[in-house]
Amino acid sequence: MSELSNAQYQSAVKKSELNIEFGLISVNVNSSFSQVTKTISELYRDYNVTLSSDWFDFNVSVEKPSNFRRFFRSQAVFKLDGHIPFKPLPSAHAYPLFEWGMNWCVANFYHRYLIFHAAVLEKNGKAVIFPAPPGSGKSTLCAYLALSGWRLLSDEMAVLDIETGNVLPFVRPICLKNNSIRLVEDWFPEAFISDVATDTQKGDVAHVRPPTDSVRRCGEGAKLFAIVFPQFKAGSTTEIFSMTQMNTLKMLVENAFNFDLFGHEGFEFISRKLPDLLLLEATYSNVDDLRTVLESEVQD
């Protein structure tokens, strides 16, 4: 995207001809909000794009509503193929709405692969899935590892190919919330972080640009090595516990987007994989301590 001139970029967005290539999918993007188009150009500058109006997986946009509300208390709506799937948000939240909307599209309509709500990172060819509910520190840990030499596959979605057993990348900007924004700014002053959207439904929100190498390798899957359930607990020491296969399966299903659609096939796939994987639960307050433990596990 960075190779497009500003005029080319603005023209493509205006005409709905800008397709961002993720490897996994292609998304046609459009927005009437200058802040959204500006942030897309900043966060997605390393991504391959195509200029076409008729070849993509999802056609999404963030726009001003067409009713009278556009004249006061400005709002933003997310559209998929022209349809509005959920309620408008304040216009100040237009960019997070774009990211959340793309998550919704894939979780609800892309069922070629088994998808879990989890971060995924790879080191030495070994992929580690970090499923976790909100508040567990997953995205903070994800940003720390991705900016410390691990390859980012996803901050939000673990995409598993049940035929090959590999984890497939869905590289996107990393979503930080509240105190995590300042932490990552302090840890990695060279990282690019978007403007902060305040008082969203998830608190203050900002997005971290993915490392260039992770974006360039968005077509390269990785062998699944471990499943780690992280839980940040302020002031705690780093403690690592082994997980049973039964508890891991239960927690994976709780964090799955489309497990029910795969039925017996999905259950059999996970049941066959678990005995070969490292299954851990990690309680921590120091992300560098946890990184050290994880890197000792993925050494060649």
Task: Give a verbal description of the structure.
The chain has 300 residues and is α+β, with helices and mostly antiparallel strands. It has two domains: 6-109, no CATH class; 114-297, no CATH class. The protein contains nine helices and 17 strands. The chain has helices at 6-14, 34-43, 94-109, 138-146, 179-187, 212-216, 245-254, 259-273, 287-297, and strands at 18-21, 26-31, 49-51, 58-63, 75-80, 89-90, 114-123, 126-131, 151-154, 157-160, 166-168, 174-177, 197-200, 203-208, 222-232, 239-242, 278-284. Strand 5 and strand 6 (89-90) form a beta hairpin. The two termini are 35 Å apart.
Topology:
Elements: H1 6-14, E1 18-21, E2 26-31, H2 34-43, E3 49-51, E4 58-63, E5 75-80, E6 89-90, H3 94-109, E7 114-123, E8 126-131, H4 138-146, E9 151-154, E10 157-160, E11 166-168, E12 174-177, H5 179-187, E13 197-200, E14 203-208, H6 212-216, E15 222-232, E16 239-242, H7 245-254, H8 259-273, E17 278-284, H9 287-297
Parallel strand pairs: 2-4, 8-15, 15-17
Antiparallel strand pairs: 1-2, 1-3, 4-5, 5-6, 7-8, 7-9, 7-10, 10-11, 11-15, 12-14, 13-14, 16-17
